[in-house]
Specification:
single chain, 89 residues, mainly beta, Immunoglobulin-like, two-stranded antiparallel ribbon, 6 strands
């Protein structure tokens, strides 16, 4: 039987602002094949001409699907160092 782990991925602001500091990820499913341990999510950091201190946002995995689990860490906090560019997680 072929089963995929299909958690939702989303972003949320902490001190960084969506559409000003980063392009928010519209909540969507990430598909893991049965033997996959990792997948990539691209997060675009937006540039501006304003010098800013570090800003923080979070990336969440949730709702993996029936009979599936997410490991012990389902949230990561991302620190933006004044216009980092594109980040891949």
């Amino acid at each position: 039987m072929f089963i995929q782990n299909r958690p939702d991925v989303s972003t949320a602001n902490v001190t960084a602002y969506p559409d000003e500091d980063y392009e928010p990820i519209t909540p969507r499913r990430v598909y893991f094949d049965p033997m996959d341990a990792e997948e990539s999510v691209v997060l675009q950091i937006l540039s501006d001409s304003i010098a800013e201190p570090q800003e923080v946002l979070k990336l969440d995995l949730s709702d993996p699907g029936q009979d599936e689990t997410i490991g012990p860490v389902n949230t990561t906090f991302i620190i933006i160092n004044d216009d980092d560019g594109k980040l891949v997680f």
